[in-house]
Specification:
The chain is an alpha+beta fold. The chain contains nine helices and ten strands.
Amino acid sequence: MITVKNHIRSTPYFKGITQAEITHITDHSVLRTFSASEMIFVEGEQAAGLWIVEKGSVKIFKLNPDGAEHILHIRGPGDTFNDIGAFDGGGNPANAAALSSDIQVWLIPSEVIRHILLHNPQVALNVVQLLAGRVRSLVSQIEDLALYSVIVRLARFLLKQADDPSLSGPGVTRTAIAAHINTTPQTISNVLHSLEEAGAIQFDRHRIIIMNEKILRSIAML
């Protein structure tokens, strides 16, 4: 039987949680299923709670005034999303949609989250520390977009992808990667050729293989 309990135990937010609190969360969580490209929630609407990916990939994204999409995050199994909306009780700060087909996600309602925060100081401290880490990550992402070329941004993405399974798999296409690092699919293809010519990677239509991490790190300016 699929249960959210295992995810709760492994989610850093809930380190130090009691068995009674785990049971409370489990009893009130709901498993939802979405098809590829189906919206999970819309920016600005009241946040329903904290989401945890059970199966598949989810994209968290913004739309510019012209309707172009910029992917802020890609979340995979075990990852949480809409953390800010769940913890501050406000609206969804971005949109979320299924990136792969037939995804499953858990929803822990906001009122359940607030109950835990009010009664468990350790969990509240975890939330402060982890959200501060998310802010640092966003600052780094903004820095990449503002200061570095596409080839540097793509090299950094590929290095992150090698360490983070949620950035790979079905749905993480060149179009999705382009939307994440703020460029076009055609530019992604061109830059992949440049990285291959430099000896850093090999690629085909279905996969990208890092052949020389040292060269890729040099291009990524890391």
